[in-house]
């Protein structure tokens, strides 16, 4: 009986996905869904099959959320459209894969890590393949495409396509708000309003200190300004400025709430997810997609739009995308592009949005309307908050970004703990970053 039900549910889901994909392909925006494009439902018949040879492709993947859904996202859809293509997942660190001599045909990574692939000589411009396969780049969010293109010299090449976007939102514990008798957070709050709301739900009861609001780390507060600690044009620190000062002062307001100051400077930029999902003492948590953790948590939660700065209305962050590209060294680039074509297809993107909670980089509103439809734990949640905020194009990342960010976190922590004022902290960060860059350039 269970097998029949599962099969029947799968058939229903496939039918729903096919109908919606047909609507996406046709460009419709109402509730009706036409047949999938190219299905022959309108008398066109099947297109002649391409004569192809069997090929096995190596796909280097660094993303665990793709790895855990490998069959559904890639293997099964490829088998359906391009049965001659077999793919093998290659895992590990990039330098290890390079050293092993393994032939890579395509790679899946975070857009912010693309610089490593550029330096390794792995990247290839996919636009000629898009043209050959008649793929319309207008299907994708132009801000995301702009960000990926910005990783190439002079923004002249496109080294891959996005398949998943990160988002920023404000999660909140309904039980804490109920206990305090305070209305829940709402969309459209400024940071000033969010901090004041956090003050109202910062209290101690029965020996438990409840915390008003926290964010993952100071970079989350800097993102709406597109701030980066190093200017790639000059290889110099870019922290000692008025925008970073605003960010530092906002973070100080957050940590000044009752009970919110951590025990030491190192804890300031430590991820507070467990305080929200496990300890259940955090009233509001400003963060990215935490659905995988919330799925197994019994916290009574919902979410609202991420707070924003008054002069940056509805700007939540910068683009944080996961992408797939063709390896320049591949001997099977046309087939590698077919993997990209399938991964970014309407059908796979709709499945990922409905069943996995991926925010799609495709612009069709149906993908937002269907978001989380198959995830039971998301039913009844205010999921439209995910889409309320816009993202800025991500600024170019310096090769010294990781080292600079470490310094930024360390000194920001000292500032929060009262060891220096904002001006001193910002000046010290710039000095230490510039010193570190000089050492790295000198090979120290």
Question: How would you characterize this protein structure?
Answer:
The chain has 444 residues and is an alpha/beta fold. Helix 1 packs across helix 15, helix 3 crosses helix 14 and helix 17 packs antiparallel against helix 18. The protein starts with a helix and ends with a helix. The protein is globular, with a radius of gyration of 24 Å. A 5-stranded mixed sheet has the order 2-1-3-13-4, sandwiched between helices. It has a 5-stranded mixed sheet with strand order 6-7-10-5-11. The protein has 2 domains: 185 residues, D-Maltodextrin-Binding Protein, domain 2 (3-Layer(aba) Sandwich), CATH 3.40.190.10; 191 residues, D-Maltodextrin-Binding Protein, domain 2 (3-Layer(aba) Sandwich). The N terminus is likely disordered. Strand 8 and strand 9 form a beta hairpin. It has 18 helices and 14 strands. Belongs to the bacterial solute-binding protein 1 family. InterPro entries: Bact_solute-bd_prot1, SBP. Pfam families: SBP_bac_8 (PF13416).
């Amino acid at each position: 009986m269970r097998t029949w039900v599962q099969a029947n549910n799968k058939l229903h889901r496939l039918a729903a996905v096919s109908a919606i994909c047909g609507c996406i392909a046709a460009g419709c925006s109402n509730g009706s869904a036409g047949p999938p494009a190219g299905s022959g439902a309108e008398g066109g018949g099947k297109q002649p099959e391409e004569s192809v040879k069997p090929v096995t492709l190596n796909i280097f993947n660094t993303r665990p959320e793709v790895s855990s859904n490998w069959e559904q996202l890639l293997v099964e859809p490829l088998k359906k459209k391009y049965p001659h293509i077999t793919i093998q997942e290659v895992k590990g660190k990039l330098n290890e894969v390079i050293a092993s001599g393994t032939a890579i045909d395509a790679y899946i990574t975070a857009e912010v890590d693309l610089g490593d692939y550029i330096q390794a000589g792995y990247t290839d411009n996919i636009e000629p393949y898009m043209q050959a396969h008649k793929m319309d780049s207008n299907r994708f969010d132009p801000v995301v495409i702009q960000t990926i293109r910005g990783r190439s010299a002079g923004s002249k090449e496109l080294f891959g396509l996005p398949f998943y976007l990160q988002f920023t939102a404000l999660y909140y514990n309904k039980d804490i708000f109920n206990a305090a008798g305070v209305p829940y957070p709402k969309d459209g709050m400024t940071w000033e309003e969010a901090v004041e709301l956090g003050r109202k739900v910062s209290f101690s009861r029965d020996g438990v200190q409840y915390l008003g609001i926290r964010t993952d780390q100071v970079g989350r507060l800097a993102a709406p300004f597109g701030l980066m600690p190093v200017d790639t044009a000059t290889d110099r620190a870019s922290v000692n400025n008025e925008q970073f000062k605003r960010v530092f002062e906002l973070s100080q307001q957050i940590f000044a709430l009752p009970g919110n100051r951590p025990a030491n400077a190192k804890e300031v930029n430590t991820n507070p997810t467990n305080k929200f999902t496990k300890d259940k003492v955090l009233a509001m948590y400003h963060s990215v997609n935490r659905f995988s953790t919330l799925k197994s948590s019994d916290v009574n939660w919902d979410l609202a739009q991420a707070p924003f700065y008054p002069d940056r209305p509805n700007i939540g962050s910068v683009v944080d995308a996961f992408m797939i590209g063709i390896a320049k060294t591949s001997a099977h680039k046309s087939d590698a592009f077919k993997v990209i074509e399938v991964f970014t297809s309407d059908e796979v993107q709709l499945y990922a949005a409905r069943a996995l909670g991926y925010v799609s980089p495709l612009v069709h509103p149906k993908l937002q309307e269907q978001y989380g439809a198959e995830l039971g734990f998301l039913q009844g949640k205010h999921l439209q908050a995910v889409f309320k905020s816009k993202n800025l194009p991500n600024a170019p990342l310096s090769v010294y970004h990781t080292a600079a960010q470490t310094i930024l976190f360390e000194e920001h922590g000292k500032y929060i703990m009262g060891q220096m004022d904002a001006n001193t902290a910002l000046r010290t960060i710039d000095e230490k970053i510039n010193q570190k860059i000089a050492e790295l350039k000198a090979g120290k």
